[in-house]
Amino acid sequence: MIPALMPLHVRPDLVFERGEGCYLFDTDGNRYLDFICGIGVTGLGHCHPHLVAVLTEQAGKVWHNSNLFRIADQERLAERLVAATFADTAFFFNSGSEAIECSIKVVRKHHDTVGNPERYRIITFAGAFHGRTMAAISAGRQAKHTDGFEPLLDGFDRVPFGDLEAVRAAIGSETAGIMVEPVQGEGGIFPADDAFLSGLRQIADEHGLLLVFDEVQCGMGRTGKLLAHEWSGVEPDIAAIAKALGGGFPVGACLAKETPASAMTVGSHGTTFGGNPLAMAVANAVLDVFLTDGFFAHVCEMAELFRERLESFVAGNLSLFESVRGKGLMLGLKCCDDGANTDLMVALRERGLLAGPAGDNVLRFLPPLIIEPAQIDEALDILETTCTEFRG
Ligand SMILES: *Cc1c(COP(=O)(O)O)cnc(C)c1O
Known about the structure:
Elements: E1 16-20, E2 23-26, E3 31-34, H1 37-40, H2 49-59, H3 72-84, E4 89-93, H4 96-113, E5 121-125, H5 134-140, H6 143-146, E6 156-159, H7 164-170, E7 175-180, E8 183-184, E9 190-191, H8 194-207, E10 210-214, E11 238-241, E12 252-256, H9 258-261, H10 277-290, H11 295-315, E13 321-327, E14 330-335, H12 340-350, E15 353-354, E16 356-358, E17 362-365, H13 373-391
Helix pairs in contact: 2-10, 3-10, 11-13
The structure holds pyridoxal-5'-phosphate.
């Protein structure tokens, strides 16, 4: 008999009752060092006092009134994101997939508005992950996400990640845009190099295409800058953000330059829940912390330390790991044996360290951005003991 909860995930028999900073506590009182953060969401850790204060204050005021009315915190968050990023405008949703959906719609609507309605196709990349809506799985086109859901949405052409020549070859008279993760997450923690991103910008400009960055996972501080593409100096026309934007409260956003966003007019798109007062209060609170002097410097410092420690750990465990890869505090260990990433994830969890799997046999770490050297030491200690036992 099917369980009451639709069985879409394999989960350990473990329920977390409480979180505090970098740690989670299960119902038996066991403590876990959370280096996956609900897949890069709780960037400020658990129960950050400023987020708790803002959320509970807002909870006593107003929760929801829909986009039929002005929402002061929504306007404020949009202004702050515009001031802090490449974007001229922003619109809010409840998830990353919805932010991607809007990004795709902006690409199509822009070309329709400027008199190229035949242009609707978007070039995407092998290993990409853009979410689980029909448009998002059509864009990512990973068999494990699309099997049984065909026909997919038409309009996506996939080429190898990092291959500018393949991008050029895929462009036709119907091509409208290019969509890429500056650091591929689910696909296996592959950072795009700066030359690839600037090559994409150049190709997009030559052919009148829109460049969309999916920063749902790598954005919002994860790499040590507010948005990951800032490292490259390359600006997109559109970007989707979500995961860490709400620190655990579901919220996503589509950010865009005036062109193409000006194609989106009253009635073009909408959402009931997106940008509601609770989500907006919390996302503003997240930004309060992110925009504090020294916050990103701390992320970069911790990232450098964690990476160094992982590099030397891998060097001492070459029978288990091939390499460290990633950017900032979005790091992966490429495992040697097939499936070792999930086996290790389970073994680490049993010893109190939460990590996640990623594609390409990678063990993924997305630690809280507020970690200190003590947490890095603790994680490495658990890695060491686990791997010693693992090697047998
Ligand atoms: C998680 C993720 C999404 C989808 O976000 P949801 O909130 O799960 O819909 C899209 N793109 C990337 C890069 C992601 O990591």
